[in-house]
Amino acid sequence: MGSYETRFQVRFHEVDAYGMVWHGHFVAWFEMGRNELTEKFGLGPFQLKGRGLLAPVVHLSCEFKQPARFGETLLLQTSMERTEVAKLIFHYRILQQGEEKTVATGSTTHVLTDLNGNLLYRIPPDLLEKIEEMMKFLGV
How far apart are CA 10 and CA 74, in angstroms? Predict the structure, then answer.
């Protein structure tokens, strides 16, 4: 499965008293990669809202493999899983740039709703077309 890559450097405010990245920042990094990817295909949060849809997170997982520290350059790989229902599943892998050691892995699951929070059962055809474009880009 292919992935969309985002490179970034750990900033000082992202480390804790032990000099390691505080765990909560990993969720923000996942969001950064997901938003960069989806916005390229007209599926970002505000783009979805403009279509009358929301995609709230209903499940999040993160597994920490090794610490990241201030100044390190990290590579975030974001991919998407194909589903048959109105939900979006993204997978993430964060690597130390250069050494290619896995720092963390994770996933988020988002359901599709209308603006009132009513669940959709099927992905609207125009949205499905955009998702297929993104899947093709990712090599899925």
Answer: 7
Residues of the chain with pLDDT under 50: none
Distance separating alpha carbons of residues 88 and 19, to the nearest angstrom = 34
Please check whether residue 97 is in contact with residue 104, taking contact to mean a CB–CB distance below 8 angstroms.
Answer: no
Residues 33, 5: Cα–Cα separation, whole Å: 7
Single-letter residue type at 71: G
Is the torsion defined by CA of 53, 59, 60, 63 positive or negative? negative
CB-based burial, 82-94: b 16+ in 10 Å, e otherwise: eeeebbbebbbbb
Domain extent, residue 84, equals: 4-138
Mean pLDDT over the full length of the chain: 96
CATH code for position 44 = 3.10.129.10
Say how many domains are in the chain: 1
* Token pair recorded at residue 73: 């350059």
Backbone phi and psi for residue 91, each to the nearest 5 degrees, phi listed first? -120, 145
Structure confidence by residue, pLDDT tens digits, 72-113: 999 999 999 999 899 999 999 999 988 889 999 999 999 999
